[in-house]
């Protein structure tokens, strides 16, 4: 698995992604002892290798270009490789969430602190969706997505030892919520990184912390406040900003539908906040209608829920 050539390591990676899903094998002492090595390899290799320039000096990229001739085949191959890496992280998290969740999220934090290490700081002028910092961030968010999937599967199997599991679950929920809250406090100028953060925290809210409406309200506020000014002089950047605002509207609807009953109790705060955002950011008519529709969704669904309760 540690070989720098992805084509050499993928058979072993695939094998372990299958073996770790088998309870008897995943619980063996040898396998447990190898867990740090598995996590280290998989978290490092969730990069979109196919997006790196072919002239890169990275040995893994050089092997990839030499081993696979065509770009479509390269994309398909690397997609499978990342899927196996995610499966291993997911399986380890599901089997040992107490150790995996905190350890992996801690490492992700460290990596997010160093996205721009060794490269130029962010600039709208040379913005690119295949920049090194963005690919680094994407890899870290993919790691967290795999962790959340594994954690969610552990929750679904919850109940075999209710009291013990409940204590473990509460501790992990606190850890996940704390990490997600700190992620929302990070400041990035890259609109694509902002997109990934929004999608990730909404996923965490709906999957890992679905019984935490107060956290969902924090996420709602974060998404509402995530706005970047349009910069028509930089068309590539401006298009990414447009995509960011579109994604934000979509994720707001997801939250509004899921937590309408809870959000309705804060309607008097949300309504002026949304009006303030639309005025301050000079949003276009379409976006203004989408933001207003969030309020309508909250009120409409909350009334339906209220009627059902009676």
From TrEMBL:
Keyword Signal: yes
MF annotations from Gene Ontology: nuclear export signal receptor activity; RNA binding
Listed GO CC annotations: cytoplasm; nucleus; RNA nuclear export complex
Cited InterPro entries: ARM-like, ARM-type_fold, Exportin-5_C, XPO1/5
Signal peptide stretch: 1-21
UniProt keyword annotations, A-Z: Signal
Biological processes per GO annotation: protein export from nucleus; RNA export from nucleus
Pfam families: Exportin-5
Domain Exportin-5 C-terminal: 1-299
Protein name (Swiss-Prot/TrEMBL): Exportin-5 C-terminal domain-containing protein
């Amino acid at each position: 698995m540690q070989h720098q050539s992805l084509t050499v390591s993928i058979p072993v990676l695939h094998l372990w992604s299958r073996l770790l899903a088998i309870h008897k094998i995943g619980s063996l002492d040898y396998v447990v002892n190898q867990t740090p090595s598995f996590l280290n390899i998989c978290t490092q290799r969730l990069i979109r290798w196919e997006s790196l320039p072919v002239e890169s000096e990275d040995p893994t990229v050089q092997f990839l270009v030499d081993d696979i001739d065509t770009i479509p085949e390269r994309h398909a191959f690397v997609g499978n490789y990342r899927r196996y890496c995610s499966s291993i992280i997911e399986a380890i998290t599901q089997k040992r969430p107490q150790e995996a969740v905190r350890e992996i999220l801690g490492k992700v934090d460290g990596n997010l602190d160093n996205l721009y290490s060794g490269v130029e700081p962010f600039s709208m002028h040379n913005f690119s969706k295949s920049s090194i910092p963005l690919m680094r961030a994407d890899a870290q968010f993919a790691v967290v997505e795999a962790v959340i999937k594994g954690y969610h599967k552990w929750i679904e199997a919850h109940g075999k030892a209710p009291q013990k599991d409940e204590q473990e679950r509460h501790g992990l929920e606190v850890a996940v919520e704390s990490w997600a809250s700190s992620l929302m406090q990070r400041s990035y100028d890259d609109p694509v990184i902002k997109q990934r953060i929004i999608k990730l925290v909404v996923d965490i809210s709906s999957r890992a912390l679905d019984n935490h409406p107060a956290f969902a309200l924090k996420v709602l506020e974060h998404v509402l406040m995530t706005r970047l000014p349009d910069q028509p002089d930089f068309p590539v950047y401006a298009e990414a900003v447009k995509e960011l605002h579109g994604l934000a509207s979509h994720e707001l609807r997801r939250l509004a539908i899921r937590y309408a009953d809870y959000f309705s109790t804060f309607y008097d705060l949300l309504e002026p906040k949304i009006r303030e955002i639309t005025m301050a950011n000079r949003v276009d008519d379409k976006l203004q209608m989408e933001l207003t529709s969030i309020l309508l969704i909250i009120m409409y669904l909350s009334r339906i829920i209220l009627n059902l309760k009676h």
